[in-house]
Here is the input.
Amino acid sequence: MARWRTRIAGIAERLDGPRGLRLEDESALAPLFRELEAASAAITAQVRQLGDARTARLQDEFEAARRGFAQQVLGAIVLAAGAAVGFGVWLARPLRRLEQAVLGLGENRLDQPVQIDGPADLRSLGQRLEWLRLRLQELDEDKARFLRHVSHELKTPLAALREGVALLEDGVAGALTDDQREVARILAHNTRTLQAQIEDLLRFNAAAFAARRLSRRPVELRALMQQVVDAQRLQWQARQLQVRLAGEPVSAAVDAEQLSMALANLLSNAIRYSPVGGGIELGVATRPGAVWLDVADQGPGVAEGDRARIFEPFYRGQTQPDDAVRGSGIGLSIVREVVHAHGGQVSLLEASHGAHFRIELPHATD
Here is the structure.
């Protein structure tokens, strides 16, 4: 830059000199202009070089800033994802317990307190569910108490009525005409029917109450089913039935007495509906996290119109065996109460012939 200024000053000095000297110095100005051009070119090159260097520096700074911003964004994404995962894990357990509590209330398992940890909203919801559980438990106990009291109160006048009808039939109050004897016979039949229904009601209520107070312990289920089969040996041998039990030994934490009663009801139904000389198949099978207990007979099966209501208390289906006393309709409902109390389910499966019932219990271990 100093060289360029020196050349400019020299040229200006010659140009500003006397007029006579200008022509003499024209030949001397040409080299000065060439030197000025060379100096200008050098200045231009330096300016370009400085510009390129500054541009490169700015690009480097921009790239560094871009990489820093990208790292910050990536870090924010990772942090957000970690927070989301942590929040999900934090919520997963109380939500799972909340789901289990709702299922427990739906399955009438009212003996398990509802305790939900986590955010305030979930804790508040858990407290409301616990209040609902206590309220349902209170209502359930009131219902059971009412049924016991009503049944007890009905049994006393019913017994007096039966005794009175029996005295009339025996002629204690005097001889009866044929029409009077027929009326007494109808009264006696209806009092016996009413007494049987009251006893069924008491039995169902007692079974439902006991099902909600299980005493669990590890039980080998195939051996338990074999005990049920042996206990009813006289019944199925009397009908010349072939009863077969298949499956490998498998254990689960159950109430042996309650589950035996449920299996006995299923086997009793199978014996009752099986044709003479027929067969009954029982089985034990394991699945991931569950065990299946099957009871299948070769009887007439369950009518299509009865399938939806077969487990309702006191419901008796359309198909009834001709050679057996009409059932009370509480056997299968007791089975459902017991199985639901164990956290399982009982279902009537599709079958080409006969009836095939399956009990599915959770958390089985070989």
